[in-house]
Amino acid sequence: MRTRPLGITIMSGLSFVGVASSLVLAMLALFAPAVLDAVLRALSPSGAGPEKIHEAMGAFLPVYYLVTATLGAALGVGFWKLWNWTRIVTLVLIGISLAAVPFQIALVLKAPTAAAVSLTAFRLSLCALWGWYLLKPNVRTAFRTRSAPAIAA
User: Fold this and answer.
1) What is the C-alpha to C-alpha distance for residues 39 and 42, in angstroms, rounded to an integer?
2) Does residue 97 contact residue 127 with C-beta atoms inside 8 Å?
3) How do the domains of the chain map onto residue ranges?
4) Are residues 149 and 82 in contact, defined by beta-carbon separation less than 8 angstroms?
5) Do 152 and 7 touch, CB atoms closer than 8 A?
């Protein structure tokens, strides 16, 4: 019997929270664009968040949110079922996020505020934490063993 590490159970749950968030954002993009604009501005102190990229998508934005929800659901199920491709895809996404850090820092340096610096530091910390966790030997082993999962404390 495979034991699912607690952190992986948490990642699965967070994936489903992300699905719900993406679906809400998709609905806002379709039916309340002004509200979505306000939400994106609130999530982007000094331009350090998703606002500019999301606004640049224009009419494609609801499709983006639906694709994000679909990917999040697949990752949530994959983490729950300990499918190794889920761990690998997440590590790739973390790598992409880290590759974007220089651009993020450039935006923060244009208008440094405590909120923007904090958001950037938080993002880097999450990338480092989850990347390190997914590379731990016991986590890798949990994804490679073949049998039914159980939750480990």
Assistant:
1) 5
2) yes
3) 2-151
4) yes
5) no
Q: Can you read off the two tokens belonging to residue 87?
A: 């761990």
Alpha-carbon distance of 49 to 9, in angstroms, equals 27
Three-state SS letters, the chain: CEEECHHHHHHHHHHHHHHHHHHHHHHHHHHCHHHHHHHHHHCCHHHCCCHHHHHHCHHHHHHHHHHHHHHHHHHHHHHHCCCHHHHHHHHHHHHHHHHCHHHHHHHHHHCCCHHHHHHHHHHHHHHHHHHHHHHCHHHHHHHHCCCCEEECC
Q: Using alpha carbons, select from 110, 98, 103, 119 the residue that is nearest to residue 45.
A: 119
Amino acid identity of residue 12, one-letter, is: S
Burial of 121 (0-12, 13-18, 19+ CB in 10 A): exposed
Q: What is the pLDDT of residues 91-119, one digit of tens each?
A: 999 999 999 888 878 877 877 778 778 88
AA identity, residue 61? L
Q: What is the pTM of this model?
A: 0.82
**Cβ(45)–Cβ(116) below 8 Å:** yes
